Amino acid sequence: EECPIDYVGTITVNSNMNLSFDFWFEDTLRVKQKNVLGRIPSSNDDIIAIVLESPHKNEYKNVSFIHPALKTTGSNLQSKFEDVVSHFKNDLVGGKTYHVYLINAIPCQCSLNEATHKYRTKIFKYVWDNGGEASFKRTLKGYHPSIIYNLCTVGKKTAICKSLRKLVDDAIHASGMNSSPKVHSGDHPSSWSNKNTRCRCFSVDCQAFKRI
């Protein structure tokens, strides 16, 4: 079963460029917001897309509630994503509300419910090369984000795939969207609870993220 795309909150920017956030990344909050998770954006919406590589075992633990970025990933986004957005505040436009979506580049489980180093990179690359990349590009065009955070993991480096994040970066820039989004590429949120990674992600220069 494919993991859906989730609508996970809003960022409101007033005329003075002050930001207010309303997120429901964390899994218990998403259960409470289950009626809005499938919200389809309108053509006039300003969209921020958070891109991850593929769902893992936690996303399928409760078969009646299969959704992206549950458990640690969702909790870290809930507590830390405001800091990331605030760091890149210049991307935003005053007087707008941005709608935030979680998107898996590959919406099916590439890890086969095993430790991610075993199968995820190989299966991701196979699916990517056999329709997955084209499907992801169509998804991006359909959601027309003005800002993208590519938080896909690098994965296990192999001879056939040096970096899953780089595959997704390249696809974003080749997606053919009508307008060019602002794109940032950075560490997967599951690692944001690590002290060293957190310092890199949320230091003044935000070294873990780069503008691409």
What does this structure look like?
Helix content is 32%, strand content 18%. It is α/β, with parallel strands linked by helices and 212 residues long. A seven-stranded mixed beta sheet has the order 2-1-4-3-5-6-7, with helices on both faces. Helix 3 packs parallel to helix 4 (164-173). The longest helix is centred in the middle third of the chain and has 28 residues, at 116-143. It starts with 5 loop residues before the first strand and ends with a strand. Residues 202-208 have low confidence and may be disordered.
Helical fraction equals 25-40%
Distance between the termini: 32 Å
Largest sheet entry? 7 strands, mixed
Q: How many helical stretches? A: 5
Shape: globular
- How is the largest sheet built, in terms of strand order? 2-1-4-3-5-6-7
Mean pLDDT: 89
**What structural category arises from helix and sheet content?**
alpha/beta
Q: Strand portion, in percent?
A: 15-25%
The tally of strands reads 7
Low-confidence stretches: 202-208
What multimeric state do the chains show? Answer: single chain
**H/E topology pattern:** EEHEHEHEHEHE
Features:
alpha/beta, 7-stranded mixed β-sheet, 7 strands, globular
